[in-house]
Amino acid sequence: MATSAPTPHAGDDNATDDDVVSLLMRQHGDIRNLFDEVESATGDERRDAFRRLVRLLAVHETAEEEVVHPFARRNLPGGDQVVDERLAEEREAKEVLASLEEADPDSPDFAERLRALRTAVQEHARAEERYEFTHIRRSGDAGRLAAMARGVKAAEAMAPTRPHPGVESGTANVLLGPLAALMDRTRDAVRSAMGG
Amino acid sequence: MTFNPLEQRGIPLDRQVRSWRELDVAPIDPDHCDPYTRCRIITMNGIEVEAILFSHQLARHTADPEIKRQLARVRYVEAQQQKVVNWLLPGVSSVLETTIAYEQVAVDLTAWVARMEPDPYLKQAYQFGVLEDFDHLYRYANLYEMIEHRKAESIVDGLTEVMPGRPTRFHHRDPVDNVRDPYAKDATNPLSKLHALTIMSAEQQTMNFYMNTGPTYMEPIARRLYQEIGLIEEEHVTHYESLVDPGETWWEQLVNHEYNECYLYYSFMEQESDPKVRAIWELHLNMELEHLHAACDLMRRHDGRDPAEVLAPELPNVLTFEPNKAYVRELLATQIDLTTLGAGYVREAHERFEAMQARLHGDEAPPSDQVMAEHQDMFDREYRLETEGEHPDPALREK
Ligand SMILES: [Fe+2]
Ligand SMILES: [Fe+2]
Ligand SMILES: [Fe+2]
Ligand SMILES: [Fe+2]
Ligand SMILES: [Fe+2]
Ligand SMILES: [Fe+2]
C-alpha cells in the first residue's frame, strides 16, 4: 500500500465536531483536496470531481454565511469590515464558479481559470481562519461553538458531497443546474438546525 | 565543474543593498511548486539566519569599532538576503504545512550529507540524527491530517516517504549524551566542515521555528507536540554543533560561513527548477563571493594566515536535494534502536538514558504518542506514505 485511505470529509470522520472552527478548518482541507482531484483527473472523472467541488463550496460558503459571519459581525471588534471583505471574496468566487460550469473541463482555458479560482479560494479560507475563526474561538463559549457546529453539519447533510458509486450519471444533471436552489435548501436546513 | 570562489569576483559590497521594490519577491505556489524548491528555500533561510547570528556574536566579541562597522555592513546584506529568501514562502501556507517541509528538509538534506560524508564518525552522527527527523515528519503528518484534513503527500509529493522512524519518545536523552566529539580542523576534509555547518544551521532554524510558532496553535495536541519536538531540536543542535572544532578562530569560522554560503547558492543555482528562484540563488551567489573576499582579508589581517590553507581548492560536488528512500530504509533496518552514550552510540537503554526517560515521561504517554492515538480515534487508521513497500522493520508495520 502506497498511501493511507482517502481522508473522509469533515463530518464523516469520528471527530466529536463540538467546535465549529475545527470543523470548518477541516472542510477547508476537503475543498483543497477536491481541487487536487479535479486537477489530476480528466474527462468524465474531472467533470464528476468538479461537480463535487462546486457542491461542497456552495454548501460550505452558505453555512458560513448563515452561521459564522453573523456571529463575527456581532461579536468581533471591527467585525463588520472583516465580514464584508469575506463576503466580497465569496461573491467573486461564486461568479467564477458559475462561469466555469459552462466551460469544457478538458480545455486549457478551464485549467487556467480553475487555478485562479483555487488561489482565490485558498486565500479566502486562510483569511477566514486568521481574521475570523481565531476570534470566534476566543469569544464564543463551548455551547455556542457546538451550536454553530450543528448548523454546519446540518448543511453538509443537506447536500452530500461525496461520490456515490453507481448513481453519478443519474444525479449528475440535477447537481449543477439548480445551484441557487441548493443554496436555498442549505440555508433552510441551517436555520432550522440552529433553532432560528 | 571547477568553480573556485576564491578566484571569482562578485557584486561590489557598496552596491549590494536592495530597495523595497527589489525585496518584494513573489512567493511560490504551495500547491504546484517543486517540493525541493521549498526545501532549498528553507535551507537557505537557515543558512542566512546563522550568518546573521554568527556575525552578531562576533561583533559582540570585537573591540575595534572599524571592524564592528564592517561586520554591520555585511550583516545588513545578509539580513536582506534572509528576507528575500524566506519571503519566497507563501502567506497562505499554514505553520503545520511549513513544519512538514522543514522535516522533509531535515530528512533529505541530512541523508544526502550522510551519504557523501567522508569521515566515518561524522557520517554516523548524520545517520543517527536522520532517523529522528524522519519520525518527526510522520508525527506532524498525522497531526496535519487531523487539523487540516490534508495528507502530507500533498507537500512532500512522494519524494520522501512518511512512516515511523526511531520513535520520538526515545529521542529524549540525558543532555550530556548529546555532546559529540569534534573533527580536527587541520586534519579533516574541508567538505566535512561545510557539512557540519550546513546541518547545524538547518537544525538551529528548525529549533527556532518550533519554539516561536508552536504556541500559535490553539489545539492542545498541537501545542504539546511542538513542545516535545522543539526540545528534540535543541538536542539536535547540541549534537551537530559539537561536531565543529572549537579551535577554529573567529576569523576562520567567518571564512567558513561565507564559503559555505557560496557553496550552497552555487549548488542550488545548478539544480533549481523555478527560474525566478534560480535568479535569486544566482544573485545571492554573486553577493556572497564578495563577502567571502572581505572575510578572507580579515583572516589574513588578524590571524596572519592564508585562508586557502583551510579551504578546499575548488567547490566540492554540488549539494543536491533528491530522494534518499533506499538509503533511509537501510538505516531504518539497521540503526533504529541506537541511542547515544557519551560521545558514542550503543544499543542498550543504559542507566542515564532510562533515568531521563523516567523523569520526562513519568507514567504518561508523550505528545508524540498521543497524537497517534488521537489520529487513530478520528480516522480508524494512521497516516503513512510508503511508496517503496512495507516498513523495513517488521515491528513498525501498521497493525
Ligand atoms: Fe468562506
Ligand atoms: Fe471557509
Ligand atoms: Fe548570506
Ligand atoms: Fe525534527
Ligand atoms: Fe532535527
Ligand atoms: Fe554572506
UniProtKB/TrEMBL annotation, chain A:
Gene3D superfamilies xrefs: nmb1532 protein domain like
Pfam families linked: Hemerythrin
CDD domains: Hr-like (cd12108)
Xref: InterPro entries: Hemerythrin-like (IPR012312)
Hemerythrin-like domain residues: 20-133
PANTHER family: HHE DOMAIN PROTEIN (AFU_ORTHOLOGUE AFUA_4G00730) (PTHR35585:SF1)
Name of the featured protein: Hemerythrin
Automatic annotation (TrEMBL), chain B:
InterPro entries: Ferritin-like_SF
The organism's place on the tree of life at top rank: Bacteria
The name this protein goes by in its record: Ferritin-like domain-containing protein
Species whose genome carries this gene: Streptomyces roseolilacinus
Classification of source organism: Bacteria, Bacillati, Actinomycetota, Actinomycetes, Kitasatosporales
